[in-house]
Every structure is written in C-alpha cells, then in structure tokens.
C-alpha cells in the first residue's frame, strides 16, 4: 500500500469557514508554472480577467473572452494542488440572465476543473448568484470598484468615499452574501467601508486596495512581483523587481550573443559515445 499523502485542495466551503480566523491569502495566476510556484503559499488562486490587461495588453478587462478564461483556468488548475482555484467570468458572459450565467459557469467548471467562479456586481446580480449557488456553482462575489464597469463608472478610481456610496457597497455585499456567495472581493475602497462590510456579512471579505480591515487580501501577482504593465496602483506592495531583473538578463544575453560568448562549450552537444 502506498504511503504517499494525497494533497486535498481547499474547497469554496473551506474558504468560507476561514471567516474570522487567520487572514486568507490570495493571489492571481494565469499559467501552470506560476500556479506551481504560488500553490504552497496561498489559500486561493484567482484566474482573474485581469489576464487581459496583464498578459494580452488590453486597456481594460472588457475584451477578455470565455475561451481565454477557460484556457487559463485549466492551465492554473493543472499547476495547483492545495489552493482553491477560482475563475473569473468575463464581461458579457453572465450579466444577461441567470440562465446565461449558469450555462457559461458550467462550461468553466467542466472544462477547467476549478472550484468556483467569480463575478462582479452588487444587488442587481443577487438573483444570478443565488441561481448558480443553488445549482452547484460556488460563487465568489466582487463589489466596490468593479473593473468590468469601467465605462459606466468613468474610470478605475476608488469607490465608497461618500457616505451614500459606502452604504451602497455594504448593501451590495449583503445582497450577494445573502444570495449564497462563499466570499466577496472588496476592491478599491476606504477602510471604514471595508470594516463595515466585513462586520456586516457572514462570509469572508477579500480586499484589494481595501485596507487591512478585510478577512483576506489579494493582489495581482505580476504587480506584487514588480512586473508591471505600466501604472502601479497605490495599494500594491512590490515584493520583487522582476522587470528590472528581466531587462538586465536580456541585456546580458544580447551582449553574450553579440560577443560570441554564448553558447559556450558546455552548452554544445558532443559526438555520440561508442561502446
Ligand atoms: O481580475 C482580477 O485579477 C481581479 C482581482 C484583482 C480581484 O478581479
């Protein structure tokens, strides 16, 4: 009998049960190698539609397709053993009706093997969240700054800075939590709003640009690694400067090739050995 320990991945209910316990650690991932590197360190890996801006060079997340999310979702699931993998539903794949959302979420779950999906929206999406949750699709909500609404909001600036807008975010989070979301991302808001939301809902809040008052934190991994696509938001802490390292490595490689220092003898194949 094998003595190997089978690693069990964290489920959506396991993440929900972390409310009020240790902070929930989350990062984005879009590829198998990155998922392998992050898996031992995070509780939840989000295959965010930020992939469109980070890897494809789009100005917003709006052009991202369901096919792109499925391809990246499946790649991340292949690299994850322990973390709960959640795949973003892209713009236009769920807003039309609960039936449309279920049809597309079911494809994501079947074709990626992910544990859950994420969708943006407040009270107006509560019926859809309930429809999915009751039919076997765990949903991570997303309130506050919602990047898929960039055209309606007029930009990516922080939300909830007025009392009325802060209360609106709290009501949105309450509606999504009551509808059955297992956790809610709270993006781009002030600490007082994040604190109120976290106190008022029974499921964990995962903050991004939303202060330490949340039950967990998430960042876009490339931002955290200093591999920026231009502008770095105020709320990002950089834990590495990979863009600098990559440029320096490319410059060294170019210098070696031009000076014929690379490849060296140790990089070249020799004759086949004869017995
Ligand atoms: O798309 C994404 O990466 C996200 C996170 C930033 C929360 O939604």
Structure description:
There is one protein chain. The protein is of the alpha/beta class. It folds into two domains: 3-240, Phosphoenolpyruvate-binding domains (TIM Barrel); 242-275, no CATH class. It is built from eleven helices and eight strands. It has an eight-stranded parallel beta barrel with strand order 1-2-3-4-5-6-7-8, surrounded by five helices. Strand 4 (116-118), helix 6 (126-133) and strand 5 (139-144) form a beta-alpha-beta unit. Helix 2 (32-38) crosses helix 4 (66-79) and helix 4 packs parallel to helix 5. The chain is globular, with a radius of gyration of 21 Å. The model is unreliable at 1-5 (pLDDT under 50). Bound molecules: 3-methyl-2-oxobutanoic acid. The site of 3-methyl-2-oxobutanoic acid has 11 residues, from strand 6.
The low-confidence runs, each spanning 5 or more residues with pLDDT under 50, are 1-5
Could you name the CATH homologous superfamily of the largest domain?
Phosphoenolpyruvate-binding domains
Q: Assign the CATH topology of the largest domain.
A: TIM Barrel
Query: What hetero molecules are bound to the protein chains?
Result: 3-methyl-2-oxobutanoic acid
Could you give the count of β-strands?
Answer: 8
- CATH architecture of the largest domain, by name, is Alpha-Beta Barrel
Strand line-up of the largest beta sheet: 1-2-3-4-5-6-7-8
Query: Helix and strand succession?
Result: HEHEHHEHEHEHHEHEEHH
- Average pLDDT rating: 95
- Helix content, binned percent: 25-40%
What composes the largest sheet? 8 strands, parallel, barrel
Number of domains: 2
CATH class of the largest domain: Alpha Beta
- Name the beta content range: 5-15%
Structural class: alpha/beta
Query: Which outline best applies?
Result: globular
How many angstroms does the end-to-end distance come to? 41 Å
Instruction: List the total number of helices.
Output: 11
> What is the C-alpha radius of gyration, as a whole number of Å?
21 Å
């Amino acid at each position: 009998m094998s003595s190997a320990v089978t690693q069990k991945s964290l489920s959506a209910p396991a993440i929900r049960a972390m409310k009020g316990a240790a902070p929930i650690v989350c990062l984005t991932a879009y590829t198998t190698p990155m998922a392998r590197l992050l898996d031992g360190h995070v509780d939840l890996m989000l295959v965010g539609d930020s992939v469109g801006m980070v890897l494809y060079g789009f100005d917003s997340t709006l052009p991202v397709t369901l096919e792109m999310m499925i391809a990246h979702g499946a790649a991340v699931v292949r690299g994850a053993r322990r973390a709960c993998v959640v795949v973003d539903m892209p713009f236009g794949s769920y807003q039309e009706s609960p039936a449309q959302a279920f049809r597309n979420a079911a494809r994501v779950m079947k074709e990626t093997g992910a544990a859950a999906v994420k969708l943006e929206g407040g009270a107006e999406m509560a019926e859809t969240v309930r429809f999915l949750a009751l039919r076997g699709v765990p949903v991570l909500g997303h309130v506050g700054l919602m990047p898929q609404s960039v055209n309606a909001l007029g930009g990516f600036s922080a939300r909830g800075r007025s009392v009325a807008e802060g209360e609106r975010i709290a009501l949105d989070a309450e509606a999504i939590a009551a509808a059955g979301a297992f956790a809610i991302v709270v993006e781009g808001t002030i600490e007082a709003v994040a604190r109120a939301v976290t106190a008022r809902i029974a499921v964990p809040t995962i903050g991004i640009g939303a202060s330490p008052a949340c039950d967990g934190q998430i960042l876009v991994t490339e931002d955290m690694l200093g591999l920026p696509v231009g502008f770095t938001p105020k709320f990002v802490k950089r834990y590495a400067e990979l863009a600098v390292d990559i440029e320096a490595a490319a410059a060294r490689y170019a210098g070696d090739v031009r000076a014929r220092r690379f490849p060296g003898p140790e990089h070249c194949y020799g004759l086949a050995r004869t017995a």
